[in-house]
Each structure stands twice: as C-alpha cells, then as structure tokens.
C-alpha cells in the first residue's frame, strides 16, 4: 500500500494493482472505491494513516462494481454502517442483476503472455473466496447527497467499461476520480500516461472511448485513475490530446 496526497484533501492509495482514494475535509472522509477483497485491511488502515478514525468515514462512493473496486465494502458497512453510493444503472450491476466483467475464458487467454500470467495469478489471490460477491446495499446518490459528502463530489456518468460506470469530479480542487473510464497504466500493458484499459476489460469499447473523451471537458487539474499513477501536471493538455486522438 502506498499513499500519495494529490491535493489539499485527496489521498490516493495504491493497493493490489488498483487504486482507491480518500477525500478528507472537516465533514469527515469519503472513500472512493474500495480495492480488492484482499485489500480490505489496507483500506481500513489507510483511513488511520491519513490521520482519521474509521468513524470519520461518511460514505463509500463507487465508480463501478468490479471486484477490484468493491472489496472492502462489506467490512466498511459492517463496522460503520455507512451508505454505499454509485450511479443508478451501476446499482443494478452492484446487486448482480447482471454481470459485465472479464470472463474465465478471457482470463485463460491472458495466460499466454508473461504480464498476463502474473496479473491473473495476483488477481485470483486478491479475490479468493469472494468471486461471487455483490453489493446489495448499493444505492443511487442524487446530486445533493454527493455534494454534501466530504469533498463535495459531482457524478459524471461514463458508460462503457460497464453500462453504469460513474466517474466523480471534485470541483473545489479540480480532482477527477476517473475509475476505469480512463486510466494511466495497467499491469498487463507496458505503456503509461492517459489511456483506456485494454479492450478485454471494457464491456462496450466504443462507449468507453466516447466517455473517456468527454472527461476532457470537465476542467480537471488532477487525475485519480482506478489503475496507474495519478497525474497532477499538465492534465488539461494531456486530456485534450487524448480527446483529439
Ligand atoms: Zn478496475
């Protein structure tokens, strides 16, 4: 686990090949995404490491209901009873009314490359015992509710990676939590910088690209992706170049 403060209020935590973020202000802490099931202890201890008590957590806000973004939610809800918010369509995915994620056959195909094989092994360890988990308590947040949470967030529907994928923007500090709509790296690819996840992870590739391009219009200064390093320098230029590519 590595914690990186990227603005006055926002801390990005790198867990097992995935990031979550903590948004801290005098109202408490909003947890944005929640790592793999195997990251649960790290998610809980990251709150203490930025100087808060667990009881300061006001809510968990989820970009999408893949296992690498929801892992610590059962523990957070059980210990704290906090609400879990995501986009209205993603609520259905979180409840597993349907499932849009990489298939076992696609994972087997990834074993053909060294990077893929390492990632598959790490992923299977990180989800062990929790492959069938869902988030039955997920609920849709309206704009007022999100704005009142620590940090004050705005939902940005970004369908593609999943139909209900939702990014979040924090206007006061210009921070964009892009989840898996736009990332800056992934263990199965070698390139870094603003990019889409490999197509095997995206339910709708055209939608993913259109949503990612749309993120350039928000005026974000800091990018907190679901995978890869945060970007704090020249973000408007980088997003603009990506949107035109
Ligand atoms: Zn992810």
Automatic annotation (TrEMBL):
Pfam families xrefs: Lactamase_B
Q: Where is the Metallo-beta-lactamase domain?
A: 17-227
* Name under which the protein is recorded: MBL fold metallo-hydrolase
Segments spanning the bilayer are none
Q: Which Gene3D superfamilies match?
A: Ribonuclease Z/Hydroxyacylglutathione hydrolase-like
Which organism was this protein described from? Nocardia tengchongensis
Where is coiled-coil annotated?
none
């Amino acid at each position: 686990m590595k914690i990186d403060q990227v603005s006055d209020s926002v801390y990005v935590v790198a867990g097992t090949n995935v990031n979550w973020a903590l948004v801290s202000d005098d109202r408490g802490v909003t947890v944005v995404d929640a790592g793999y099931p195997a990251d649960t202890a790290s998610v809980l201890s990251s709150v203490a490491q930025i100087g808060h008590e667990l009881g300061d957590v006001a809510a968990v806000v989820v970009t999408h209901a893949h296992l690498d973004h929801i892992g610590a939610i059962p523990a957070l809800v059980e210990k704290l009873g906090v609400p879990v918010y995501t986009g209205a369509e993603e609520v259905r995915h979180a409840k597993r009314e349907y499932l849009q994620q990489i298939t076992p056959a696609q994972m087997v195909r990834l074993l053909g490359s060294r990077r893929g094989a390492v990632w598959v092994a790490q992923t299977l360890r990180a989800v062990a015992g929790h492959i069938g988990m869902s988030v039955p308590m997920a609920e849709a947040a309206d704009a007022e509710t999100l704005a009142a949470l620590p940090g004050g967030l705005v939902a940005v529907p970004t369908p593609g990676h999943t139909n209900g994928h939702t990014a979040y923007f924090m206007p006061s500090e210009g921070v964009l939590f892009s989840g898996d709509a736009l990332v800056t790296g992934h263990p199965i690819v070698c390139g870094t910088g603003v990019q889409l996840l490999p197509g095997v992870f995206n339910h709708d590739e055209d939608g993913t690209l259109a949503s990612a391009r749309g993120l350039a219009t928000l005026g974000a200064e800091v990018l907190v992706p679901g995978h890869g390093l945060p970007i704090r320098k020249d973000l408007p230029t980088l997003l603009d170049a990506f949107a035109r590519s």
